[in-house]
């Protein structure tokens, strides 16, 4: 079984090594492909830099990665890495994508913005089993705890049937193994571990501030359990159509028959943009077609 390991913290992050070691210990072939720089908050963005129509690679490896593991840094967002991997862009189509181990928790509805989760969701949308792993610290001290939880979560991910396009989201407290209370399934908290707010509005600028979020009394949620020493497992899926019981409006145009039916012309539909920024364009922007 071939495992692709990626992240949003960049190719030099030690979290990649921990995931690679877990996959190797489970008997799998491993390749690491991660962004050349940090892409935190990139969600499932499909941004990249190209040179003459090709993705740009850099020769870097995470510290401690076993020599037999191939590693590539790519000037691309993690969501794009998960996307193109599903089409064999790195010489194989992975059976599993492991994303992380992210520096900082990915809990609550704030996971919408996570590049770590975005890479896993992107792969899962193309039929690849995927897991995102995060440790609740910016400078982790207990990678052995994260490895212990990853081993359990990965074994479960590969055994379970019917996972479909869902992603397993794993959060681990940065505590010593003997202080880990266990691993629990969890729902999403109302928000996440960190919340952004507008601090100041000025002429031509907006200044943001980032503050920690207290573990509110939401028993059973990922943030609540994580703050109390539990590692958490949450199943995610996106996108999902959901009208929530709302009756949506319908307005008929001038044609009596729907376009696309026999005898009716199809309307051209354009994406409007290209994936790449181009080598000289600022990262994160896209060019119009």
Automatic annotation (TrEMBL):
<comment type="similarity">
    <text>Belongs to the SurE nucleotidase family.</text>
</comment>
<dbReference type="InterPro" id="IPR030048">
    <property type="entry name" value="SurE"/>
</dbReference>
<protein>
    <recommendedName>
        <fullName>5'-nucleotidase</fullName>
        <ecNumber>3.1.3.5</ecNumber>
    </recommendedName>
</protein>
<dbReference type="Pfam" id="PF01975">
    <property type="entry name" value="SurE"/>
</dbReference>
<feature type="region of interest" description="Disordered">
    <location>
        <begin position="247"/>
        <end position="289"/>
    </location>
</feature>
<dbReference type="InterPro" id="IPR002828">
    <property type="entry name" value="SurE-like_Pase/nucleotidase"/>
</dbReference>
<dbReference type="GO" id="GO:0008253">
    <property type="term" value="F:5'-nucleotidase activity"/>
</dbReference>
<keyword id="KW-0547">Nucleotide-binding</keyword>
<keyword id="KW-0479">Metal-binding</keyword>
<dbReference type="InterPro" id="IPR036523">
    <property type="entry name" value="SurE-like_sf"/>
</dbReference>
<keyword id="KW-0378">Hydrolase</keyword>
<keyword id="KW-0963">Cytoplasm</keyword>
<feature type="domain" description="Survival protein SurE-like phosphatase/nucleotidase">
    <location>
        <begin position="3"/>
        <end position="188"/>
    </location>
</feature>
């Amino acid at each position: 079984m071939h495992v692709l390991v990626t992240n949003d913290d960049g190719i030099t992050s030690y979290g990649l090594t921990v995931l690679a070691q877990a996959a190797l210990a489970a008997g799998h072939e491993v390749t690491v492909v991660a962004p050349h720089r940090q892409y935190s908050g990139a969600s499932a963005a499909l941004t990249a830099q190209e040179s003459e129509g090709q993705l740009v690679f850099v020769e870097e490896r995470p510290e401690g990665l076993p020599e037999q593991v191939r590693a590539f840094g790519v000037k691309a967002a993690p969501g794009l890495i998960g996307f193109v991997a599903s089409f064999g862009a790195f010489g194989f189509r992975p059976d599993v994508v492991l994303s992380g181990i992210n520096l900082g928790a990915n809990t609550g509805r704030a996971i919408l913005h996570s590049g770590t989760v975005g890479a896993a969701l992107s792969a899962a949308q193309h039929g690849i089993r995927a897991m995102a792993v995060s440790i609740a610290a910016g400078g982790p001290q207990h990678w052995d705890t994260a490895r212990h939880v990853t081993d359990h979560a990965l074994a479960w991910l590969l055994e379970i049937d019917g996972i479909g396009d869902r992603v397993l989201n794993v959060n681990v407290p940065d505590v010593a193994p003997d202080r880990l209370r266990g691993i629990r399934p969890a729902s999403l908290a109302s928000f996440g571990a960190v919340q952004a707010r507008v601090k100041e509005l000025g002429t031509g600028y907006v200044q943001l501030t980032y503050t920690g979020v207290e573990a509110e009394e939401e028993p059973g949620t990922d943030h609540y359990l994580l703050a109390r020493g539990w590692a958490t497992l949450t199943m995610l899926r996106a996108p999902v159509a959901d009208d929530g019981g709302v009756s949506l409006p319908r307005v008929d145009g001038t044609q009596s028959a729907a376009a696309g039916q026999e005898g009716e012309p199809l309307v051209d539909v354009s994406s409007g943009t290209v994936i790449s920024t181009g080598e000289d364009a600022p990262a994160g922007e896209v060019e119009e077609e």
